[in-house]
Amino acid sequence: MTDTKTAWIAEEIASLQDQGLFTHIRTLGSPQGAWLVVDGKRVLNFSSNNYLGLANHPRLVEAAKQAMDTHGVGPAAVRTIAGTMDLHLELEQRLAAFKGAEAAVTFQSGFTANLATIPALVGKGDVIFSDELNHASIIDGCRLSRAEIVRFRHADPDDLRQQIAATSDYGRRLIITDGVFSMDGDIAPLPALADIAEALGILLMVDDAHGEGVLGNGGRGIVDHFDLHGKVDVEIGTLSKAFGVVGGVVAGKQTIVDWLRQRGRPFLFSSAMTVPDVAACIAAVDVLEESTELVDRLWSNAAYFKRGMNDLGFDTGESQTPIVPVMLGEAPLAQRFSKRLFEEGLFAMAIGFPTVPHGKARIRVMNSATHTHEDLDQALEIFAKVGRELGVIA
Q1: What is the pLDDT along the chain (394 residues), one digit of tens a residue?
Q2: CA 78 from chain center: how many Å?
Q3: What's the start-to-end Cα distance of the chain, in Å?
Q4: 264 alpha carbon, distance to own chain's centre
Q5: What is the spatial distance between Cα 360 and Cα 334, in angstroms, rounded to a whole number?
Q6: Would you list the domain boundaries of the chain?
Q7: What is the CATH number of domain 58-290?
Q8: Based on the number of CB atoms within 10 Å of its own CB, is 315 exposed (0-12), middle (13-18) or buried (19 or more)?
Q9: Beta-bridge partners for 346
Q10: At CA 166, angle to CA 163 and CA 170, rounded to 5?
């Protein structure tokens, strides 16, 4: 019997399937690493955001176990009532020191960090200048704020200046950009944006989700990468990618961090990060502070793989980071390409609309410090085979 109340949903799903835009969600049966068991099959992993291999690092696992022995599993409360543990404060102090910021506050995820921060800084009658390719969490945070949203051309400081000059009716102003753009792997022109923000007295916020643990000295992020300490008001980070755990962090000026503890709604109305997550994140900071080895290996692997793909004739876009987009164009081709990669023993997901614009579907390859050169060579062989089979390369 057809459920008339949800018939439209079934029609939309069928439409996605017809367009090659329906995402088949695969299931992992192993810890994160260079190799995974996916849907029961052992495959090379080039889909995860586990840049440094910390998601299954023995020190993080052990730290989580020990913390559960002393602090239990969950905080069972929001931070402002009974959910702030000494571990939360230790992590925030360590992250602020690691990033060279005045202060830091943690959230349940990078997504909720954006949802907390943007509406706390601007509201109705204010204006946000947002890069047109900013992440969905930024877009949603902007919408929740009820401020006017003015988009500027991707990574274009000149267009930002023009948009600011053309906007005269406002209260507070905020410029927001991703640090590393997750689908293309390019880096925001943060020094130029910081100059504009400073000259015009506008708050500047950067979401460094894919720069955390990747850019800067030993993975300290995009602000450190460009030596802009003190010139960026708000730096959003995630602890679920290079840090290998889960959670979000806002680092920056003490005044802003204090304000988020008073007005950041996910901080006020959602339970705090769990005990094992917090302890594992502290251990991740330990690992990164002790050595740059993992970060250095990540960049070395990325350069090796990107060079190999370009030699084969693949279009890898304009990436400046370990993210390597393999540009294919149409979503159905990207879906077929991903399926054939998996059949050959390599896990790399197709990315299509609405994550990227129509006509710019791709395979997004995520390099890791855990890959060996043998892994990378095997991956290049598989890409070459599938690419020739589907007519992508000669």
Answers
A1: 568 899 999 999 999 888 877 877 889 999 999 999 999 999 999 999 999 999 999 999 999 999 999 999 999 999 999 999 999 999 999 999 999 999 999 999 999 999 999 999 999 999 999 999 999 999 999 999 999 999 999 999 999 999 999 998 899 999 999 999 999 999 999 999 999 999 999 999 999 999 999 999 999 999 999 999 999 999 999 999 999 999 999 999 999 999 999 999 999 999 999 999 999 999 999 999 999 999 999 999 999 999 999 999 999 999 999 999 999 999 999 999 999 999 999 999 999 888 888 899 999 999 999 999 999 999 999 999 999 999 999 9
A2: 25
A3: 50
A4: 20
A5: 10
A6: 19-48+292-389, 58-290
A7: 3.40.640.10
A8: middle
A9: 44
A10: 95
Sheet strands (E) in the chain: 35-38, 41-45, 103-107, 127-131, 148-152, 173-178, 203-207, 234-238, 248-252, 323-329, 346-347, 350-351, 361-366
Separation between Cα atoms, residue 80 and residue 315, nearest integer Å: 50
Amino acid at position 196, single letter: I
Question: Please, are residues 279 and 59 in contact by the beta-carbon 8 Å criterion?
Answer: no
Give the closest residue to 46 by CA, choosing from 367, 355, 314. 367
This model's pTM is above 0.90: yes
**Pair type for strands 234-238 and 103-107:** unpaired
Domain 19-48+292-389 coded CATH 3.90.1150.10? yes
Q: Which two tokens stand for residue 312?
A: 């084969």
Positions marked active-site? 182, 210, 241
